[in-house]
Amino acid sequence: MSGEEPGFEGDISMTIRLIGKLAAGAAMIALTAGAAKAAEQVEVLHWWTSGGEAAALNVLKENLAKQGIGWKDMPVAGGAGSAAMTALRARVTAGDPPTAVQLLGFDLRDWSEMGVAANLDDLAAKEGWDKVIPEALQAFSKYDGHWVAAPVNIHSTNWLWLNKAAFDKAGGKQPTNMDELFTMLDAFKAQGITALAHGGVPWQDGTLWEAVVLSVGGPDFYKKAVLDADPTALSGDTMKKVFDDMSKLRTYFDPNFSGREWNLSTALVIEGKAGAQEMGDWSKGEWLRAKKTPGTDFVCMRFPGTQGSVLFNADQFMMFDVGDEQKAAQMKMASAVEDPAFQIAFNTVKGSVPARTDISDEKFDDCAKKGMKDLAEASSKGTLMGSLAHGYAQPAAVKEAMLDVITQHLNGQLTTDAALKRLPEAVAAAK
Ligand code: BGC
Question: What predicted TM-score, i.e. pTM, was given to this entire model?
Answer without folding.
Answer: 0.91
